[in-house]
Amino acid sequence: MKIIHVPCLEDNYSYIIIDETTKEAAVVDPVEPEKVLRVCDENCVHLKFVLTTHHHWDHAGGNEKIKELVPGIKVYGGSLDNVKGSTNKLENGDKLSLGTDIQILALHTPSHTKGHISYYLTGKDEENPAVFTGDTLFVAGCGKFFEGTAEQMYQSLCVTLGSLPKPTRVYCGHEYTVKNLQFALTVEPENAKIAQKLSWAQHQRQAGLPTVPSTIEEELETNPFMRVDLPEIQAKVGCKSPIEAMREIRQRKDNWRG
């Protein structure tokens, strides 16, 4: 399984997923379709379908255009999200395959939007899996609770995504890592892993390189929103439950001007 970042708009990522045996490909959130198709051509792959994480324009806004450019292409999106250009609606637990080696599992991860879907991919046995988390899970952060609640985000992050294998690579929808880690340090100033990752992320960005992917293991160590089960995190933010802490940390992040 090969995954190619396609930087789009100001700070978005689309991703091209390639089954290297068959040269079949899928794309996650192709908001700039012409750019995506150019990268597909450069890599000599055949684009089979689109995986849409959620209905916001900076993720689903290229779907209609890509359908014009690739007649007959399938566009997948969550059944509860009114995804523009969707041809196939997905429910939690639905499965797809790409080429001969890649299996895709749709995971309903609501809160940012009602029907947000994350896509969990497994390839050959020795390969680490990958998950495409759109705007639910960012590196060291999470999306705003636009259409949902702290309870839903807790379930999405800490239960659904947090229970994936620790080596799972996390591919999110935006390059927000430096700011997210700077904020994470305000919650846990003594967390050395956050400080180390912030230093690394700043060097990556100065070199014009992405900070994505992370891993589920790294997120459990550095992402305050995925650490709300820890009594010490709850105590730091003056809360007595994981969901209270999730709500409080999100409010702090929303008001933070770092």
Feature tags:
single chain; 258 residues; alpha/beta; 6-stranded mixed beta sheet
Characterization of this structure:
This protein is of the alpha/beta class. It has one domain: Ribonuclease Z/Hydroxyacylglutathione hydrolase-like (Metallo-beta-lactamase, Chain A), CATH 3.60.15.10. It is 33% helix and 26% strand. It is built from nine helices and 14 strands. It has helices spanning 33-42, 57-60, 63-69, 150-161, 177-187, 192-206, 216-222, 231-236, 242-255, and strands spanning 2-8, 12-19, 24-28, 46-51, 74-78, 88-90, 95-98, 102-108, 117-122, 130-134, 137-138, 141-142, 169-172, 214-215. The strands form three sheets. The chain has a six-stranded mixed sheet with strand order 1-2-3-4-5-6, with helices on one face. Strands 7-8-9-10-13-14 form a six-stranded mixed sheet. Helix 4 (150-161) crosses helix 9 (242-255) and helix 5 (177-187) runs antiparallel to helix 6. The longest helix has 15 residues, at 192-206. It starts with a strand and ends with a helix. The relative contact order is 0.12. The model has no long low-confidence stretch (mean pLDDT 97).
